[in-house]
Design brief:
single chain, DNA polymerase, domain 1, hpI Integrase, Chain A, 3 domains, three-stranded antiparallel sheet, 17 helices, about 10% strand, elongated
């Protein structure tokens, strides 16, 4: 028999079976543990061939062992990890990691040593969260956060490998509860516009912009006149603001690299933007310091609109129009669903909305799959919608 190398959740060990006798030597889970265990196994195997291996193992056992290092817990490592990664992450991403860590990971497994995280523990964690009513997607975000943490711990040499890589099938069996989108129809949007006629103009224009471009509210609040290409009739989306109050209005990049995009502008969207540009130039002549960044949607003193106040306005406006409540993000859903139902190629819609893959667009808007015939953002305008029967022959090459 020979000395064999083994690895378990407590680290590396060498097991010797020789002439009916068994002995085991543990080497822990430190960075050089595998190397030490391998060297020891080779020495024992050599002694098995030439003599008595118990000579070596007894001598090692008699040596004074080094004090055992304190195992780092998940909570201890998580706090340092969150601080270390903050400079390299978008504020919203770091906030998501922080919330998952503080609300779920630390309360459940914070006291567990990093080296003791295994499949069984993760299975218990996932099962408990699903039983508590968290959706598959919410649980996936928790595991993704923990996976990122453990990957960094592995790179730091604190654990041998990331155990979360083996739990994908646990979530695969959980039913995904897909959030149903609730877009406005063209008729409902017309009611919304009519109700807004006597309201604050900048809010009314912002609603029209969101509906006719599919931009996210965080993108629209920081879009500037310099982002508009008047010749190609496009607006470039290249920055976004987080509307989460904990992030205090930090401006950064779009949600993803695909979020940086050029959106086609419909005739009515262009008319609205040209009017706002004229008003902006008139204000600049009176006060050059007003709205120095050239924000398209700014308040009376040239500052960015307040997200919370706009949300309140939007909710009250729907009541006035006699419509059921929807979120601001449903204006974006309206853009996607109306274009698709009017025949826009799914690749075109995905690109306009900043989706990395058309499958993302399908996930939310499959019931509005395109029909052959038409594909234009101008379908979002009242005139085009009313004359829809004469507009179906017009085609547009997919970008």
């Amino acid at each position: 028999m020979t000395a064999k190398l083994h690895y378990d959740n407590k680290g590396w060990r060498v097991v010797i079976n020789w002439k009916g006798r068994r002995k085991e030597k543990r080497f822990g889970n430190r960075r050089n543990s595998e190397k030490l265990a391998q060297q020891f196994a080779e020495q024992v195997n050599h002694l098995i061939n030439v003599g008595d291996p118990w000579m070596l193992t007894s001598a090692i056992d008699e040596k004074k062992e080094e004090p055992k290092k304190k195992e780092i817990t998940v909570e201890e490592y998580a706090k340092q990890w969150l601080a270390d990664i903050e400079p390299n992450l978008k504020p919203a991403t770091h906030l998501s990691y922080s919330q998952s860590t503080e609300k779920h990971i630390i309360p459940e497994i914070g006291s567990v040593a990093l080296v003791d995280i295994d499949y069984k523990l993760l299975k218990t964690f996932i099962t408990k969260k699903i039983a508590e009513g968290y959706s598959k997607n919410s649980t996936r975000i928790m595991i993704a956060t923990l996976s990122s943490l453990l990957s960094e711990a592995s790179r730091d040499g604190l654990i041998r490998s990331n155990p979360t890589h083996s739990v994908g099938r646990l979530l695969a069996g959980v039913r995904m509860v897909k959030d149903e989108v609730d877009p406005f129809t063209m008729e409902e949007f017309e009611k919304l516009e009519l109700a807004a006629l006597q309201r604050r103009e900048v809010y009314r224009d912002l609603i029209a912009f969101l509906f006719r471009t599919g931009a996210r509210i965080g993108e629209a609040l920081v879009v500037q006149f310099g982002d508009i290409n008047w010749e190609s009739e496009e607006v470039r989306i290249q920055r976004a603001i987080s509307c989460n109050p904990r992030l205090k209005g930090k401006v950064g990049l779009t949600k993803s690299e695909y979020g940086m995009r050029d959106i086609d502008l419909s005739p009515e969207a262009l008319d609205m933007l040209q009017r706002r540009k004229r008003e902006y130039l008139e204000q600049t002549l009176k006060d050059p310091n007003l709205n120095p960044k050239g924000l398209i949607f700014a308040n009376n003193v040239g500052k960015r609109l307040d997200y919370a106040r706009f949300c309140s306005f939007f909710s009250n406006l729907q009541l006035s129009a006699g419509l059921r409540h929807r979120t601001i993000h449903d204006l974006r859903h309206s853009f996607g669903s109306i274009l698709l139902s009017s025949g826009a190629p799914i690749g075109y819609v995905a690109k306009q909305m900043g989706h990395a893959k058309a499958t993302t667009t399908l996930r939310y808007y499959s019931k509005w799959m395109p029909k052959e015939g038409e594909s234009y953002t101008s379908i979002l305008d009242r005139k085009t919608w009313q004359n829809r029967g004469t507009d179906k022959k017009r085609q547009k090459n997919e970008k």
